[in-house]
Write a structure and sequence with these properties.
The protein is α+β, with helices and mostly antiparallel strands. The chain is built from ten helices and eleven strands. About 45% of the residues lie in helices and about 20% in strands. The chain has a six-stranded mixed sheet with strand order 1-2-3-4-5-6. Strands 7-8-9-10-11 form a five-stranded antiparallel sheet, sandwiched between helices.
Amino acid sequence: MDFKDLILQISGRIEKLKDNLPTEEATKNALIMPFIQALGYDVFNPLEVLPEMTCDIGTKKGEKIDYAILKDGQPIILMECKHWQQDLNLHDNQLLRYFNVSNAKFGILTNGIVYRFYTDLAEPNKMDNKPFLEVNLLDIKDNQIEELKKFHKSYFDIDIILSSANELKYTGELRAVILNEFANPSPDFVKYFGKQVYDGMFTQSILDQFTDLVKRSINSCINDLISDRLKAAIKEDNSEIPKDTQQSNQEENQDDDYLNRDSRIVTTEIELNGFYIVKSIIRTIIPVERIIYKDSIDYFAINIDNTWKNICRLYFNNENNLRIAFRDENKKEERYKLNSLDDIYNFSDKLVEKAKLYVE
């Protein structure tokens, strides 16, 4: 089994096992130790993986780190582990203290689902406040798997990792800034674009007007890009589909494309969270790169490859009336009420059944 398959296998274990892991120790055994093994290290060999390594901090003696990964008898990676339900934001200071008194070059803070990777890019021998890489195994991307692979025993090279860490740190921070500007444009951001199309004074009322226009324009551009990519994929797939089926699909796709180009469409956080839950349920059946979504005014569709391979639709425009819908072979839709996002898991069998229709 190659490295990617190992990581995806661990990802698939999370949803199956997490509710049966009541303690931090159980989380370590079921989720974190398999992850360390996937990186090529023998978790039962203390010369490679040393549990409870002592990290004396000033006058505090006997402080211990959960795991230290060793090379030539010296720690190269420190791992601080928490229960899978723990918020990692509450615990990064603990890892920082351990890191600063050790010779390790990398620190990992994890709850078995999210893995945060730290080093000392800003100041030598002092752990950065922000991770250079954060990976959520329930929503892992191919490029993240490639970054994880650099920590594998067979490929581990400090210089190579540090080189990519520097780039990852700034691209990650830039991405966060860009996403925040897209969601909530700042006055400077709005003025930068607004002044290129408006010659008058930017009073507060004009700024308010352009803030809304910029936000809607961004959403429209993103939707157009997604729509264009989907159309290209559909066109390629349609070359292998019977003509009568193509005609039916084209009619539906035209309707969806029209909806997706409406600037009123805003993909919300709750819709994305619903998408991530569905993806986590069916990812053991369908490769994650094939699972996509398409937003419209009325519903949020989760599809395989393109718009005609539908898994389900989410009706989340009203957060007080959440519904999930499934379409049969005649495109007749049946909707079910959800009291919360967690209720999506009640439809796991139906989602898996739908996903199996598109296994290649």
